[in-house]
Design brief:
2 copies of one chain form a homodimer.
Chain A lengths: L1 H21 L11 E7 L5 H16 L2 E7 L4 H13 L4 E4 L8 H9 L4 E4 L10 E4 L2 H15 L4 E7 L4 H17 L3 E8 L4 H14 L3 E6 L2 H13 L7 E5 L3 H9 L4 E5 L1 H16 L20 E3 L2 E4 L11
Helix pairs in contact in A: 2-10, 3-4, 5-6, 7-8
Chain lengths: 326, 326
């Protein structure tokens, strides 16, 4: 009877040990540990890719990732949402900023309360956030330039459809223009216009390009709706496959047009990367795994790298299937 | 007797279960899993900080980090060392490149053999490496500009001691000059010279600055030996504390001079970050934890962010103790 009891105790011990061990590694958190992603225009498809990366990482780490955000692109609305999140004292926050200065005060408040914060996709550079993870837009424009130049055999006339005055689009345009000038002197940018991130405006703009420049052989669109609009006009002018299009992002309209062969390629942003590496960084700070120098907390030392360029990839007919949101 | 056996079996089971569980989390590797750091001029103090970060992460992940490198700054020698490492089929490689083009072929060979490779500190941008982790030198120069401008009350004459023609130093200089021009119009750069990363040359150069510009109130040195040389001349001219010095890096000579109050501040690179995040990235690829898109391996998709700016911090008398290598 005593021995039976010993067997039972030993088996219970086995169970307890294994459970304990499962939850004891440095990269294993508590299921009740909550990390928030805070966005604006929170219903759009674009953020799904970002949150997928955060959720995947959270699952690997045994913690919880929660998505929230302001329904509109309204900075006051987003500040309210962020304040509500901070009030819950979460384990960490990844926030994309509808306005760099407007989000600064709540971000600093969270950091001062000991909540790790990183920004992703759109930064608040003067805030105390530990890291910004987003697309290096200048490099993204350079990637588009090289791909389009290759498609047209390294020579010819090209045009740009962009969103004038918006920093990320201006950077994409600059990277595109500079790279062509440096690496492809026989490719000339003959026209640039503002499509204001609107499909109809882009279609009108590009129709104008085609009329004014009958030898045009390529178009770079720095925004997805511009690409869809450009595709409409190129198709209507009977120039599909003759005027090559490199667009931006991977919403369904763009992917469908790549499948059809009207848009040749699009520059995909590293949205999954933004979420995955945000989560790993927040976890690493929360669990005190990062020690860039001893006692960084009290010495004005940032515990994380300052900026991550989450990178871009060229989407073409060959790999387009992988980019549809499952 | 039978029951005793049962107790022993149960206890063995407990042991086996707990071991199994310990080794079964997604962020737990095998002790025999070997990740290499490959450097050049492998004996210098600078790399110790980088490897410390890699070793700390390796320990957290339960894997092995191994340090090696070419004794000299000789690209052929480094290629040989890297080839020897590749021949061992390690789990991953973090390599700093003595020459961007010279290391390209072996890096590509490793990637094609399925060995994850990241570069750190010095990149090979045209290679197939998955990520580059290093200091954003332009931003580092901007940080130096802001700190020095603050020290001299936002106005006055400053000079630069740098290494002419070396990309990282040119970027630091550009970030310094551009930031002053944009944010501190009353601070004028009156002299710039090449110290060739040599303490004696820097001392002569800065002695000349002091003679030619009696109102000089600040010096930015883009390299550590330049800072030590500048400190010598400033002290000899009886201008310690009058001509403020912001230097670069955290070798012992620089830290000692900060302690003495001759050098006011130095820009510390995120060396520990380079090692820690290199290790987490290599592990994440090796263990198939990163899925930016399904099937990235066969679709020409980079599994990692392209570039990490590992950041910089300002070292002053207040926090200098934390930067001495333990």
């Amino acid at each position: 009877m005593k021995r039976s009891l010993a067997v039972v105790v030993a088996l219970l011990l086995a169970l307890a040990f294994s459970t304990l061990a499962l939850a004891s590694g440095p990269f294993v958190g508590e299921p009740k540990e909550e990390y928030y992603m805070v966005t604006f225009v929170s219903g759009i498809e674009y953020w799904k890719g970002c949150f997928a990366g955060m959720e995947d990482a959270a699952q690997l780490l045994g913690v919880k990732a929660i998505y929230t955000g302001a329904p509109q692109a309204d900075v006051n609305q987003q500040v309210t949402v962020l304040e509500q999140v901070i009030a819950k004292s979460p384990a960490g926050i990844a926030v994309t900023c509808s306005n760099p200065d407007g989000l600064r005060a709540p971000i600093d408040k969270a950091i001062e309360a000991g909540i790790p914060v990183v920004t992703f996709d759109a930064d608040s550079p003067l805030s105390k956030r530990y890291c910004y993870l987003g697309t290096g837009n200048y490099n993204a424009g350079a990637m588009a330039a090289r791909y389009l130049a290759g498609l047209i055999g390294g020579k010819g006339e090209v045009a740009i459809s962009t969103v004038t005055g918006q920093l990320n689009h201006e950077e994409r345009k600059a990277g595109f223009i500079d790279t062509l000038a440096r690496e492809y002197p026989n490719v000339k940018v003959v026209a640039t216009g503002n499509d204001n991130n609107d499909q109809t405006i882009a279609a009108t703009l590009v129709a104008g390009f085609l009329q004014a420049h009958p030898n045009l052989s390529g178009i770079f669109c720095t925004d997805a709706l511009g690409g869809v609009g450009a595709a409409t006009s190129v198709r209507e002018a009977g120039k599909a496959g003759i005027v090559r299009i490199v667009s931006f992002d991977t919403d369904q309209g763009t992917l469908d047009l790549i499948n059809e062969g009207i848009i040749d390629a699009s520059i995909a942003q590293g949205t999954w990367n933004m979420g995955y590496w945000s989560m790993l960084m927040l976890f690493s700070v929360r669990h005190d795994l990062v020690k860039p120098v001893e006692g960084w907390q009290t010495k004005g030392i940032n515990p994380l790298p300052g900026v991550v360029d989450t990178g871009t990839n060229v989407v073409t007919k060959e790999n387009v299937e992988a980019f549809y949101v499952k």
